[in-house]
Amino acid sequence: MMYGPQAMYAYEDEQLKAFSLPIKSIKKEANCAGLRDVDDITYTLTVHIGFDTFRVPASPTETILTAMERAGLSVPSKCRAGGCGFC
After folding, report:
1. Residue 66 CB: number of other CB atoms within 10 A?
2. Phi, psi of 39 (to 5 degrees)
3. pLDDT, tens digit, for every residue of 30-85?
4. Residue 44: partners with Cβ closer than 8 Å, 6 or more residues away
5. How many other C-beta atoms lie within 10 A of the C-beta of residue 58?
6. Dihedrals φ, ψ of 10, to 5°?
7. Terminal CA-to-CA distance of the chain, rounded, Å?
8. Residue of 30, 10, 11, 16 whose CA lies nearest to 81
9. Is the entire prediction scored with pTM above 0.85?
10. CA distance 65 to 58
11. Cα angle: 82, vertex 23, 61; to 5 degrees
12. What is the pLDDT of residues 29-43, one digit of tens each?
């Protein structure tokens, strides 16, 4: 799993050629990194964890996982970028 700016992906793509990995084994989450050209507004997310429901403020410049952690929720996660689907 790769998470970072486009320049890092370009570099890593070249480095990974030496390993002859199938393309489906390399996951990239480009949407979660870098600046985003979005309006500076706050959304309210409704989050269900088990039987509990929470209302969490979130910015369009952050991931949902980051918003939930900022709100003090203990969220199960693995990749931190949204690619694995665990959270």
Report:
1. 15
2. -70, 145
3. 555 455 667 788 999 998 888 999 999 998 878 788 888 899 998 888 776 666 77
4. 55, 56, 57, 58
5. 19
6. -60, -45
7. 15
8. 30
9. no
10. 10
11. 25
12. 655 545 566 778 899
